[in-house]
Structure prediction request, 197 residues.
Amino acid sequence: MKKKLAVFASGTGSNFEFIAKEITKGTVDGEIEILVCDKPGAEVIEKAESLSIPVWTFDAKLYPSKQSYETEILLKLREIGVEWIILAGYMRLVGPTLLSAFENRIVNIHPSLLPAFPGKDAIGQALDAGVKLTGVTIHFVDAGMDTGKIIEQEAVRIESQDDRLTLQKRIQAIEHELFPKTIQALLTSIPREEINS
Ligand code: GRF
Prediction:
């Protein structure tokens, strides 16, 4: 039986699109039940709509606290039986409400070799630091900023002629392959009974 996923995203949604593509091909044994987006007008929303994936958009400024919007999200996810949360460019820290309800079932992708360059603009941080290697990390989400247990990593070499755009392009090409593959590995390695316990 297909695992029920929620994807959270704030921006372009290229990772969202690649995960959806692999699901259609049958290489990821899941179903995206909902896209949760905190940026009304973000490109990812159109992508979900064109694939007939339900979208829930919210504006955090209209809620008194993280707890209050996360409680609303949690109710929705429970209503539709979501088992895994996939963060694909979601630009907010996840709070205790979702973390405790989805322990070890929230996964994030980050464009660096963590623990190097956590937080915003990881690609710019790597270029500024002058390192020769950066990459992609997929990790479980905990309360910290990109600090959860690492699941998968792949390195990308920084060439002397790289700028932010060229490096981002190579990093994203890796992300688009590695994220669906890693999600599939996770979905098939944890028994459903354990997920529901
Ligand atoms: C990705 O590079 C991901 O690593 C980071 O945010 C970016 C999202 O890109 N967390 P997209 O919206 O999937 O194109």
About this structure: Helices lie at 14-25, 43-50, 66-79, 96-101, 122-129, 164-189, 192-196. The domain at 3-192 is CATH 3.40.50.170 (Rossmann fold).
